[in-house]
Structure formats: C-alpha cells, structure tokens
Amino acid sequence: MRIAGITIPENKRIEIGLTSIFGIGRSLAQKVLIEAKVSFEKRPKDINANDENEIRRIVENLTIEGDLKREVASNIKRLKDIKAYRGTRHTRALPSRGQRTKTNSRTRRGNTRKTMGTGRRKVEKK
After folding, report:
1. pTM
2. Does residue 15 sit in the same domain as residue 52?
3. pLDDT tens digit sequence for 101-114
4. CATH code of the domain in which 11 resides
C-alpha cells in the first residue's frame, strides 16, 4: 500500500503504518482513520480498495512530506532573516527553547567530550 509516495509497512497495524509518512503522528493517523471509518486494528494488506482510496484522499489534503519540510525550513529561515533570538540560536546550532547548555545539549552542539572527574588527585592507600 502506497500513500503520498511512501510505502506503508504491510505487517503493522494501519494506525502505526501511517506514521511512516513524515508529518503524520499517532493522533493524526487516528483522526484520518476515524474520518475514513477504518478500524485501527486492520493491517494494510487487509484493507479493501475503497478504504484505501478514502485514506489516500484524506491524507492528500494534509501538509506532509516535502511540502511540510519546505514550510518548516522557510519558517526557520524567516527567524534567521529577522534576527530573532530563536533564529540566532538555530544559526549557532544551540537549543532554541530555553534549555541549559552548561551541561546537556551535547547532541545539538555536536560535542563528543568525555565526562571529566573531580580534578583531584587520587590518594594512594598504604
């Protein structure tokens, strides 16, 4: 089963399978299935053509995949262009939502530092 150019895994429940599309999470997948009147428990291989077309029609009206990625990128670019605080944090590759940076934020900053000890010398025991 393919929706919006993405192959939905055949062996997972349709509710979980729809989340493989960028921009669709669990809650949005559930809303789509409720609107299409399809059970969450069904597998993509068990869905008939009418239900598949109904799901496809609903998903095509959503902002997903490339369009969503472009929209997010343009929002970040706008913040950088107007020199907003959040934009400068994106530019410097630092957390933009107020997290601390003295410790943590290693993944965002790209540090591969080793954890340091206390700096004291070890005392030899006799």
Report:
1. 0.73
2. yes
3. 888 888 888 776 66
4. 1.10.8.50
